[in-house]
Design a protein that fits this description.
By secondary structure, this protein is mostly helical. Helix content is about 70%, strand content about 5%. A hairpin with a 2-residue loop joins strand 1 and strand 2.
Length: about 230
């Protein structure tokens, strides 16, 4: 069938797929390591703290450059990948181990709780990312595209606050002590916001570069902000 010359041509982006890949990888990897609690100085940290901020930084980049609608689609792609990951580990954990394979208990200890962690992460991720993306997009309109630092940090303060308040109780209440849940949630929240703040200069570099090479800088003036809409249109 010949191409219809009247049909709008979807823009071709050089780096959009790469950003989506890194974004989803950061999400999945953070789930894998979140079961371990580390302590650095006085801070108790879920090890996902070192990975998950990447997804928020790339989430900011997605919304700032490509707009809320495309970011919303990527958020749901991440959700679907998280569900698939959870299913794979549930099946693997339930499969009977070979008699000469002695690591089933260790496998179950680390990955057997993954479905709960992933479920909590997915709920927190969806709510937190949409808060993050919505706040950033609205602040971009209010600031007329100026003061990128204000909207990346401001959206993170909101999005990460919601994420931490949802994720840690859902994932670890009854497994960790209540005091441990509160400590880890609070410390992780502070560090995530600090990481976003420290990475602001890098965010500026990435955003400015992408806007230049992609010839894209979306202002969500007429965007439908319904988070349940999957299409990027």
């Amino acid at each position: 069938m010949a191409d219809d010359p009247t049909r709008p041509v979807a823009p071709r982006f050089r780096y959009f797929d790469l950003i989506v890949g890194v974004f989803v990888t950061a999400l999945i990897t953070s789930n894998l390591v979140s079961a371990k609690v580390a302590q650095i100085g006085p801070f108790k940290l879920g090890c996902g703290i070192f990975v998950f901020p990447i997804s928020y930084i790339f989430g900011d980049v997605l919304t700032e450059v490509y707009g809320y609608a495309r970011s919303r689609r990527v958020i749901w792609i991440g959700f679907a990948c998280g569900v698939l990951t959870s299913i794979v580990f549930v099946v693997a954990d339930l499969m009977p181990p070979a008699p000469d394979w002695p690591h089933q208990a260790a496998f179950h200890t680390i990955l057997g709780q993954l479905p709960r962690v992933v479920a909590a992460s997915l709920v927190a991720y969806v709510v937190g990312e949409f808060f993050n993306s919505f706040v950033l997009a609205k602040m971009k309109l209010l600031t007329r595209g100026r003061h990128l630092w204000m909207r990346t940090i401001g959206s993170t303060v909101v999005g990460q606050g919601v994420d931490s308040a949802v994720f840690y109780p859902l994932a670890f209440y009854g497994i960790w002590s209540t005091a441990n849940v509160v400590d880890v949630a609070w410390h992780n929240y502070l560090i995530k916001v600090a990481v976003e703040t420290l990475f602001t200069p890098l965010t500026y570099v990435v955003v400015n570069y992408l806007k230049r090479v992609e010839h894209e800088d979306v202002f969500d003036t007429d965007t439908d902000f319904n988070p349940l809409k999957v299409s990027s249109g």
